[in-house]
Amino acid sequence: MSTDEQAAHPWCLDSPLSAVPSAVDAQLQEYLSRSQEEFSHIGSLVGGAITVLRDFIVNGGKRVRPTFAWAGIRAALEGGGGSLHALGGKGENAPSSPAASLDPRAILNVLSSFEFIQACALIHDDIIDRSDTRRGFPTAHRTFESKHRDRGWRGSSEHYGVSQAILIGDLAFAWADDMYNCSGLSNAALDRARPAWRAMRTEVIAGQILDIAVEANGSEDVADSFAVIKYKTASYTVARPLHIGAALAGASEQTQTMLRSVGQDIGEAFQLRDDQLGVFGDPSVTGKPSGDDLRTGKRTTLINEALRRGDAAQVAALREGLGQGGESTKGDIERLRDIIHDTGAQTEVEKLIEARTQRAIESLRTGGLGADITAELTQLADQLTHRRF
Asked: Do 266 and 382 contact (CB within 8 A), yes or no?
């Protein structure tokens, strides 16, 4: 891409964190359209499945993971010991404008690849949780189920929906690697970040394995719910994206370690906020029915904390009322909310969120990074962990 073309591109190496979502949206649209065209020869049924995946990815999403990956790159370049050359730029003889020394689409490819990991995780998670909606739209397996039913095809519509959704989740996982490894960044940069990339992919699946096992064995231990948070959410949502971004840009080991620690705190606070939203949240914010975690009986940290703190009558009422699915009335949900509040669990989880958020912010402020990226990361941490109910 010529210098003039790069200058016209809406993305450059000094783009703020707030620019990531729209830039990633455009890059994902381009990649998905290109991929659909590439594989259209297989047939309309495969093309239709790719369309479901495309709609799932482009219809909403905060692009949190790409944003933190970009923050990791920026942190490395702004005081973290990294360099433009480490990303694959032209080194000491590069033009004075950073945007002129590296194709911005290469970085956008890397950032956007995280959304395919996210899509796989969410599509499979919705199957596991038997969820009907995601971000206000039907989940992928329900979409396929409806298509089967509407066409009058043979067999179980529900089984068909689950089967096809599993497969497009797998496809998303494969395309994450394709987009990342063929991004256009230097092999040296990709090799440097590969251990963190590999770890992230395993950790998110391991977290899901833990989540299913803990639910099946009936654990009500707060420590078990925190282990799920650590791997299922915090690692691949914040800690590893920061780590990968910093490693790509050649950050010092000290900076990478600091960012992983900051990311772990922000990621745990982020999931704890989701736990609060899952019980007390407004559907217009969460995209899911109000009190969804109460209907499913999911043993989140919030609910386990209530079970730990409650008296015998409160615990008995919680255990009886949780997991009733569609049989739970609005009144039932309100009573469960009242019990959780009365045990002090809601207040305790707020304290956990605040402690982790403030620890992360303090680490950023003393981490030796540039003033701009420190301010932007601090603001982002506060926004994500203090989302309104």
From this structure: no
131: left (phi over 0), alpha (psi -120 to 50) or beta: beta
Q: How many CA atoms lie within 13 A of 308 on its CB side?
A: 19
What is the C-alpha separation between 377 and 300, in angstroms, rounded? 27
Burial of 217 (0-12, 13-18, 19+ CB in 10 A): exposed
**Does residue 381 contact residue 361 with C-beta atoms inside 8 Å?**
yes
Rounded Cα–Cα distance for residues 193 and 189 (Å): 6
Which pLDDT tens digits describe the chain residue by residue (389 residues)?
A: 334 443 444 678 789 999 999 999 999 999 999 999 999 999 999 999 999 999 999 988 899 999 999 999 999 999 999 998 898 854 433 334 443 457 888 999 999 999 999 999 999 999 998 889 888 899 999 999 999 999 999 999 999 999 999 999 999 999 999 999 999 999 999 999 999 999 999 999 999 999 999 989 989 999 999 999 999 999 999 999 999 999 999 999 999 999 999 999 999 999 999 999 989 987 776 666 678 789 888 899 999 999 999 999 999 999 999 988 878 888 999 999 999 999 999 999 999 999 999 999 999 999 999 999 999 999 999 999 987 64
Alpha-carbon distance of 46 to 55, in angstroms, equals 14
Residue type for position 259: L
Nearest 5°: phi and psi at 319? -65, -35
Q: Which pair of tokens denotes residue 281?
A: 């949240």
Report whether 303 contacts 274 (CB < 8 A). Answer: no
Query: What sign for the dihedral angle of Cα 145, 150, 153, 154?
Result: positive
On the 0-12 / 13-18 / 19+ scale of CB atoms within 10 A, 363 is: middle
